[in-house]
Amino acid sequence: MTDQYTDLAELDDYQLEHDGQDLRGHGLYTTAGKRLGTVSRMLVDPEHDHVAALVLEDGRGVPVSEIEIRDGNAYIDPVDESRYFNASERSYKRDRGVVVVTRRSRA
Fold it and tell me: Which of 15, 60, 19, 9 is nearest to 39 (CA)?
């Protein structure tokens, strides 16, 4: 199943559940320790309220199913390079992930 994703920075009424989950500007590594790059954007599946993909500084989008955050960096299971996508496309369609976002309460 695929869904349309939106850049977290464009969602004024969403925020990450925990500040420590903001991976923008931090490294992305495989669980084996191979550096994939630096996260520049986080793509959200607003229909399911979670981060579904990370965009690296070189423009590659990486779909995520699980993210482990250690020492401020993100670790994911290795992703086959054939699953990377060009993040310059406006419509992002990839598998879903598990980093949860919540709607901000309006005061």
Answer: 60
Tell me the pLDDT tens digit for each residue of 19-37: 888 999 999 998 888 899 9
Contact 48, 25 (CB under 8 A): no
How do residues 66-101 score in pLDDT, each as one tens digit? 788 888 898 988 777 667 777 665 444 444 345 566
CA 54 to chain centroid, in Å, comes to 3
CA torsion sign for 97, 100, 101, 102 is positive
Where b means 16+ CB within 10 Å and e means fewer, 42-67 reads bbbbbeeebbbbbbbeeebbbbbeeb
The answer to whether the beta carbons of residues 29 and 36 sit under 8 Å apart is yes
